[in-house]
Amino acid sequence: MKWKLIVVGKPALAFAKSGVEEYIKRLRRYAAVEVQQLRENGPEENGKRALAASEGCIRIILDERGRGLTTATFVEQVQTWQMNGVKRAALIIGGADGHTDETRAAADVLLKLSDFTLQHEMALVILLEQIYRIHTIIKGEPYHR
């Protein structure tokens, strides 16, 4: 499966940049991963550009109103998508003001990473780590233990 992470803004904190680079490097063994950064332009414009960039993908929109998944449930979902022939998934992290109702309505999955509000750079690193973890679980590798 190809993963496209569409993120409003770009990591500025050194540890976040390092974390993003590390997990993208690790994921190369398992899947194609692309991080597309969008410049902040307000929720409406951010949403339009993110939806355009995610055309043809399963859309997973990160939002505080979303459903919280366990890693095991996310693994099952990814395996189901793979069995159903899904080739591309887009994960969309919005700007500081979040997503509009229109953007949320376009989601195939509305996902929250935590009950905490997460800084966007942290959310990106956590999301990449979970994608890596999913692939190691699917391959039966010991990373996730």
Give a nutshell description of this structure.
By secondary structure, this protein is α/β, with parallel strands linked by helices.
Structure in words:
By secondary structure, this protein is an alpha/beta fold. The protein has a single domain, classed as SPOUT methyltransferase, trefoil knot domain (Alpha/beta knot, 3-Layer(aba) Sandwich). Helices cover 43% and strands 23% of the residues. The chain has five helices and five strands; from the N terminus they run E-H-E-H-E-H-E-H-E-H. The chain has helices spanning 14-27, 43-53, 71-83, 101-105, 120-138; strands spanning 2-8, 33-38, 58-68, 88-93, 109-112. The protein has a five-stranded parallel beta sheet, sandwiched between helices. Helix 1 (14-27) packs parallel to helix 5. The chain is globular.
Roughly how many Å is the radius of gyration? 14 Å
Tally the helices: 5
CATH arch. level architecture:
3-Layer(aba) Sandwich
Q: Mean pLDDT, as a whole number?
A: 94
- Number of strand elements: 5
- Count up the domains: 1
The end-to-end span amounts to: 23 Å
Spatial strand arrangement across the major sheet: 2-1-4-3-5
List unreliable stretches of 5+ residues: none
Overall geometry comes to globular
- Broad CATH class: Alpha Beta
Reported for the largest beta sheet, the result is: 5 strands, parallel
- Helix fraction, binned, reads 40-55%
Secondary-structure element order, N to C: EHEHEHEHEH
Helix/strand class = alpha/beta
